[in-house]
Structure prediction request, 264 residues.
Amino acid sequence: MISVVLATHNEEKNITRCLLAVKSFADEIIVVDGESEDKTVELAEKLGAKVTATTNKANFHINKQQAMDLATGDLILQLDADEVVDDELAAFIQVLHQEIQKPSSESALPAGWWIKRKNWFLGRFLSKGGQYPDAVIRLYRKGLAKLPQKDVHEQMVVKGEVAWAKGHLLHYGNHNFSEYLRKFNTYTTFKSTQLKELGTKVNILTAAQFLIWKPVFTFLMIFFRHKGLLDGAAGFVFAIFSGLHHAVAYLKLWEIYERDHHLS
Prediction:
């Protein structure tokens, strides 16, 4: 059996497109929803998903792992609601599942698979800047993978060999720049709390590091070293804001210390 699992929060713009792309081969669709206030749950159930309600957590990988734990299939595909399985990947998964059914497959097949991902940004799929193939481990055999649940950009930990899948995930993470900024705000807030937990201090040395060195270095690496310039204006904007991620997270850390100081 093939299980497709997702964690969602206010994904009514994406959920239908995502589930329609897997409905033809998924024997089971599991959605763990974190307090959506839109029609996410309604749309998911309409397409046959089993929905479990939970709280919306800052680290949404906790909800992803919950969805993974609920899966009963012997082959599991974990998706984000803003991702779409292309035809080649869908065909690969179906052929792979047939292989898993064979008695000799237990030792012959890998435990998990890397999937190449195309990322949509400012009206195009980015081809450079470290954004392609943007490999993610999302396909695995039941019981052989889990998420550490420590960061929002972590990879699965797999018990065994990890091979490459054919096909792509099409990642429509940012319908427009406003959507990108909303997620930018969420991720930098999460990063600031991580910095606090790591004991990062606010002083002239860390200010120089996070406000100057890291943003400039990140921009240069993405735009020049990883050839983001070949993606044109979209590549330039992506490189700029990737660098600014460090600065904004640091400024939010500064705010945390200021707030704690006034409360004490």
Observations:
- The mean pLDDT is 95.
